[in-house]
Design a protein that fits this description.
The protein has helices spanning 3-15, 18-25, 29-43, 59-87, 99-116, 168-174, 225-233, 243-249, 278-295; strands spanning 48-51, 54-57, 91-97, 120-126, 140-143, 152-166, 188-191, 220-222, 238-242, 253-254, 263-271. It is 42% helix and 22% strand. It folds into two domains: 3-87, Arc Repressor Mutant, subunit A; 89-296, D-Maltodextrin-Binding Protein, domain 2 (3-Layer(aba) Sandwich), CATH 3.40.190.290. It is rod-shaped.
């Protein structure tokens, strides 16, 4: 069924005449009449009784009008909701990021975002594997590496630097290393063999300052940065952690600040189809603002 003809039919049925329907649609009376005749020919039925006082729907015409009216009402509602999502942030918003970043940095800030935008239904999906945004497994993500999907829009948020940390309890018991060579006498927590770190050589603490050909033996290997963080926080040993962790928890002490570790970049990413969605836009702006506050 031709949608243009159906649209004209719906307007004629509501207006009760070709003339009034043409005025609404900005079409001539003859153009409206041709559209209705074409629709009737394709359906092989009469949709209107034509008489001197105007038009009256036939039984088949009433059936078609009821269906068409329902369709166009739903389309109008959908259009209104789409317009609202462009103007007013609302609706479901699923955000994907890593377990560590989501637990330590993002989750504490979500309360403020929800207070600012109460009509946005936020859900966080924390996983160290990337969800497929193009398949709508999530609406947006914070990735701690350049996105691997080429069709995603990306916004650089910040650069994360790895630094060396220990807990106050550990340093009180074992002392503070003053130079890289001192790490020979300390317990180190590093990535495990099964880990897939975001950048190479994140176990640089096992080598830096060590004697040639010597590799330090760690006290613990963990396959996630969040696990390393919790082990260091508990006082087990010294570990290399992203600097945002220390700023967030406040109970870690940086040691050997002259050491320069690897760095990673954080990106806000989302698929093209939600580019103009208001809830994604306000989330992007919120994250940029929060990142700026962190650096001041």
């Amino acid at each position: 069924m031709d949608w243009d003809k159906l649209r004209v039919f719906h307007a004629v049925a509501e207006a009760g005449s070709f003339t009034h329907a043409g005025e609404r649609l900005n079409l001539s009376q003859s153009a409206v009449s041709r559209q209705i005749s074409g629709l009737e020919d394709s359906l092989r039925i009469s949709l209107f009784h034509r008489h001197a006082r105007g038009l009256k729907l036939t039984e088949q015409g009433e059936m078609l009008y009821d269906t068409a009216h329902d369709i166009f009402s739903k389309l109008a509602m959908a259009e209104a909701r789409i317009s609202e999502t462009k103007e007013h942030p609302q609706g479901p918003l699923k955000i994907n990021t890593t377990v560590a970043f989501g637990s330590i940095w993002l989750t504490p800030r979500i309360r403020k975002f929800i207070e600012l935008y109460p009509d946005v239904e936020v859900s966080l999906v924390l996983a160290d594997t990337e969800l497929d945004l193009s398949m709508r497994e999530a609406d947006a993500a914070v990735r701690l590496m350049p996105p691997t999907q080429p069709d995603l829009i990306q916004k650089h948020l910040m650069t994360v630097h790895y630094r060396v940390y220990a807990s106050p309890e550990y340093l009180k018991t074992r002392g503070t290393p003053l130079k890289p060579e001192d790490l020979d006498d300390h317990s180190l927590v590093v990535y495990g063999g099964d880990a897939k770190p975001p950048v190479p050589n994140l176990n640089w603490l096992l080598e830096i300052g060590a004697q040639p050909g010597m590799r330090r033996k760690p006290v613990l290997r963990v396959n996630s940065i969040y696990g390393i963080f919790r082990a260091v926080q508990s006082g087990l040993g010294i570990g290399a952690l992203p600097d945002y962790m220390s700023r967030e928890v406040g109970n870690l002490i940086e040691v050997l600040p002259e050491l320069v570790g690897p760095h990673i970049d954080a990106y806000f990413v989302y698929p093209e189809e939600v580019r103009n969605t208001k809830r994604v836009g306000v989330l992007r702006d919120f994250l940029v603002e929060q990142m700026a506050l962190m650096s001041t």
